[in-house]
Design brief:
binds coenzyme A; globular; about 30% helix; alpha+beta
Length: about 170
């Protein structure tokens, strides 16, 4: 079983729109944020990577990595430099709870910390998404604070580089 991350392209448009209709994907997305896939898949700003995870060449999920300090909408508000912030979901219900998300995250964490300046990875699950809280804690993320993002209560977690070095190396 091999999971690989590759850049999302406009060829993934229909799949990403289809995954957006899945209840478990809708449930994790704060305030009905509109991803505007058609436009976004055709631009490549320096502060972002949009990735598709493939299991033996079959697309199974999506990951976005941003630099929250320079991201243009300043979604994260006041945030330190040298961080990365993630969004992640698996598309099909049948692919949940099989350990695939864990491997996707491990690959993503490695990718983020390959950049020598990056000292922490942030994630902002809904306050109510207790399954995701457990998932991130297992991966070494620590609870930082509760934070309101556009009227939605979220928990902020961070995987610090020092923790990563202890756990993953
Ligand atoms: C969050 C998410 C990416 C996690 O991915 P996942 O592949 O389901 O996660 P894992 O399979 O690694 O772990 C989830 C559970 O499956 C269990 N599991 C892992 N491997 C397993 C296996 N081989 N057999 C049975 N269970 C397994 C884990 O123990 C874990 O149990 P828990 O829910 O009691 O903590 C995925 O659930 C998802 O896309 N959810 C919807 C979107 C979402 O919430 N995204 C996060 C927004 S911040």
């Amino acid at each position: 079983m091999t999971i690989k991350l590759r850049q999302a392209t406009i060829s993934d448009l229909e799949l990403l729109k289809y995954w957006d209709t899945k209840q478990h994907v809708i449930d994790c997305d704060p305030d009905d944020y509109e991803w505007d896939w058609e436009n976004e898949l055709q631009r490549d700003p320096e502060w972002r990577e949009q990735l598709i995870a493939e299991l033996d060449a079959r697309p199974i999920g999506f990951i976005q990595i941003i630099d929250p300090y320079i991201e243009e909408t300043h979604y994260w508000g006041k945030v330190q430099q040298n961080k990365r912030a993630l969004d992640i979901w698996i598309g099909e219900e049948k692919d949940l709870n099989k350990g695939l998300g864990t491997i996707m995250m491990q690959l993503t964490i490695e990718r983020c910390f390959k950049e020598p300046n990056v000292d922490g990875i942030l994630i902002d699950p809904l306050k109510t998404n207790t399954k995701a809280h457990r998932f991130y804690k297992r991966l070494g993320f620590e609870f930082i604070q509760e934070k309101d993002f556009n009227g939605t209560a979220c928990f902020v977690f961070e995987l610090k580089k020092a923790t990563y070095k202890n756990l993953y190396n």
